[in-house]
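We give the chain.
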Amino acid sequence: MPSCILIVNYESLFRAALANSVNITLVHPAGSNWIPGKKDISPIANRMAPLGLLSIAAYLAKRGHAVQILDCLGPHPPKNTEEAVTRILAGQPGLVGFASTTSAFLDGYTIASKLKASHPHIQTVFGGVHISALGSQLLQEFPHIDFLCMGEGEETVLALAEGYTPASIAGLIWRDGETICANPAREHIADLDSLPFPAYEKLDGFPQQYSLPLFSYIKAPGGTMITSRGCPYQCSYCDRSVFQRGYRYNSAEYIYEHIKYLHKQFGIRHLNIYDDLFTLHRERIETLCRLLIDKPLGVQFNCAVRVGHAEKELLALLRRAGCLMVSLGIESGEPSLLEVHKPGVYLETVRDTVLAIQQSGLRTKGLFMMGLPGETIESAQKTSDFALSLDLDDMNMAKFTPFHGAPVWRNITEMGQVKDDWRLMNCLNFVFLPKGIDSFKTLDHLYNTHVKRFYSSPQWRKRFRSRGWQHRHSIMRLIRHLPDFLSAMRTFEPEKKA
C-alpha cells in the first residue's frame, strides 16, 4: 500500500480558518438491524440517539459551523436512498460525514454514491469502529468515499470543515490522485471535559420519540449518555480495541451538569449510561453519587459494571444516587470460554457480584453471548443453566459476531465457518459457526430455546408481575405496537422438532 508522508506544522493545525468553512451534514445510516425477511422492530424496541455524531456536531457548532444531522434510524427516517439524498442536499453541504457500524456501512455508502453522482463536489468522510478496523482498503474498494476518519472524529472533521489540506490532518486516510495516503494517528482528546454536551437539539423528535429498552426504566422520557472513552481490558470479541487502549473520562462535576442540562432542557427523567466500564475510576463515581444525593435532580439511571469494579459500598452509593439497574458482562457459563474470551472473569466472582448487586437493592441485567469460538451444545446449556441460577432481573443474549478489528478476527477462520456479510453483522444474526456446532440452524435453535427458557422461568415471571405497575410507560408502548412485538416473539420461537 503506497503511503504519503505527513508533514505537519502543529501550530497551524489549530489556526482559525472560518473563511474556508462549509455547511456540514452528519448522517446516521439505518443499515440492517434485524433478521432478513422479518419486520424490523428495533426502532420501536430501542431507539438510541447517535451520541458520537451529536458530539461531533456540538464540537463543530461551537466553532461557528452550520451542522445538520440526518438520523436514518430516527422517528422520521427517509423512506429510501433518494429521499435521504434530497434531505442531505437541502442543507447545501460541502462536507457530509457518515457514522458507520459494520451493518450500516453499505447503506451509508449507497447514500454517498448517489450523492456524489449528482453533486461530485461534495466531500464525503466516513468514521466509526468499522472504518478504524479496515482502514485504507475501504478507499480502494469504495471510490465514492473521499476521506476516512480514524479514531475520534471531533478534531479531524473540524480540520476538514475548515479547509486544512488533507496531508496536514492527523488521523485521516485520503487520496492523492491514485495514491492512498494514511496519515499518522491522531492523539486522543485528553480532557473530555473540554468537549461541549452533545447537540441533542439537532435530533428531530428528541427525547419523546427516542426510546429506551422496554421495562428498563420507570420514569420517562429517557435519554442516553457516555461519560468515558476507552477500556483497559481486551476481550476477544470487542472491536473497540482498534481505537487503541487507554481510558479517559468526564469528571463527576461535568457529568452532574450534563444530567442537569438534559433534565432542565429536555425533561429527561431516566438515563442509560453506555460507558464500556462506568465504574472503573471509583473516586469519580463516588463523587458523582454524592453530588446526586446532596443535590438530587430527580433523574434515575442505568449503567454497566464489571466484575472487580462493583464493590458493595459503591453499589450502595449508586442506589442512593438514583441508579435503577446495572448491567454485568457475563458472556458464558462455560469457564473455558471465559478464560479465552473474557480473561479475569470467573463464575464464582460473577455470582458474588450479582449477589452484591441484588443486596444493594439494584436490579441486575446479565449480558451473555452465544456462538463464541469453542461453543458447543453442552457449553450453551451451561450458560442457560447459569443464567437461570443467578435469578437476574433481565438478560440480553447477543449472537456472537466476529467484527473486523476484534482480536478474535485474526484467526477466526481456523475456529469455524464465517459468513463475511457486513449487513448481517448486527449481533442478531449468526455469521459464525463454531466447529462444535453442526449447522447454523442448530445454533439458531439453541439460541431461541435458551432465550425462551429464561423468560418463561417461574422466578422471572413472578418478578416481572410484581413490578408491572411500575412500568406503565413500557406497557403503553407495548400495547401501541402489539402486532409488531408479537411478530418479533414468533421470530424467536424455537422450531418444534418433528
